[in-house]
Amino acid sequence: MKNYILLLLTLLSITTLMAQNEIKKKYSIIPNAENVETLVLKSVTSMKTVYYVDGKEIKEDNVALQKIELLRLRCYAIYQNKALGDPSIVELRKKFIKRNELVDKLRNPNLDNNEKKVLKAQKDALENELEEVKCPESFGKIDGTIESKDGFLKLKPFKFSESTENTEGKNRLIKYFNGELKGYEKESIGLKLPENGQLFVPTTSFHVGALSLPLKLYVDSDSDSISGGTNNVRTDVDFALFVGKQWGVHGFNSKGELKTKKMQSANFLIGASKLTLNNKNTDGVIKKDTDVLSLDLGLAYGLSYNSFNILFGAGIDLPLSRFGDEWIFYGKPWVGIGVGYSIFSFE
């Protein structure tokens, strides 16, 4: 028992030391046709949204170009592998490329009037088609780490590439039109922080923590009767470690400070407890009280707020003794409720 307690304390010390290091969290944003132009293409200097066509900023009074560019910005998005082969997106990209090729040809000073007229008619026809295009409702999920700067949360996406090749396991930044985006950050996305309240951003991670299970209800036993002084409720304070996958939102204030964490989790439990075998819980096999070490294993669903967890679990207890199988609840399932604390989380 002493050796186990020493091992448990060692594990807790290691996890506490790891928690002191900066561990980057994974955040996710799902742009859609209504908000992607406010997420993508922020000016490096001012972080404002800028419409950008063929190397030139669009002026507000240029309504026709602004309509085209707005659509182009909405369809300039980050796709996961599953969306790379979307036929409608591939066709849309081809139209943008063709339109830009026509624009480049029209810049040729050696064109005669008839050639210009034909090319302009083709360009105008394509632009009219593009104005009718409906962008996808969702552009896929962007995953990355977050940092605060100048009133914005900046998402730094994982494994960006401008390639359209489908390489498993990598997010892809797809350019749906030609030309370099000079003066823009292609590897960060800015989310404006609110002056009041909090901005909540979806996030997922793994976490490790410690919990106490003060209440267990055994749903079965090896006893012919669990009456007469023996019941199926155990109220000893058991301690365990949990590790699991958590998902939810983090809330950031106007300064970009992380203030709120609201998470759910699915967890694996492992722990140990002192179990007293006696005449009542062994159906008379063991006459006097005998303390043994019990290995506790289980699964739990958790709800947490700022690292404090309430866990609803189920599992089994396995006394580690030659007398253990005399216990009427040996290997029998239990359900219980516990409280815990997430010591650290990681991607």
UniProtKB/TrEMBL annotation:
It comes from the Bacteria. Keywords: Signal. The keyword Signal applies. The keyword Signal applies. Residues 1-19 form the signal peptide. This is DUF5320 domain-containing protein. The lineage of its organism: Bacteria, Pseudomonadati, Bacteroidota, Flavobacteriia, Flavobacteriales.
